[in-house]
Amino acid sequence: MNTLVKTAGSWLLVAVVWACWAQAPQIRQAAAVETKPVSAAEIRSLLATSCVSCHSGGQAAAGLRLDSMAEMAKGGTSGPVVVPGNAGASLLIQRLVTSDRQLRMPLGGTPLRADQIATVKRWIDGGAVWSATAEDRTAGGIQKHWSYIKSVRPPVPSVNGGSAKSD
Known about the structure:
Layout: H1 2-35, H2 40-50, H3 69-74, H4 91-97, H5 114-125, H6 132-136, E1 138-139, E2 142-143
Antiparallel strand pairs: 1-2
């Protein structure tokens, strides 16, 4: 009986060590993902998908616009929503993670997934960097693609001498 317990204990120890060894690459990979810096494009995409429909333009909810860093820095009626370098003090994170359905953003929408919230936290903790080129591509938060600009016919040029003849 004593030998059986020792043998079972040894096999149990081997199984635990093997399980830990097998999980090590996944743990290292997860740690690497969490330390990867968040790009401004990734944040703009997340905000555009989940926030900008209500928080952009002149009628932005609570006066908060999330379509540009300048507007985000101004904040809304509750004040600034991002404290660069401190996700815990940022109202944006507090509104994303609250359990109060009346306060949680997006209001009336599907809450962000845990990985999306973690991305926003990493972005804020990393200094909330928003590239200048992102601002250059938007004018007042609205994309100005050439196809949306109304074409204007230029005036007909005047010709010296009063008339123009073609040969």
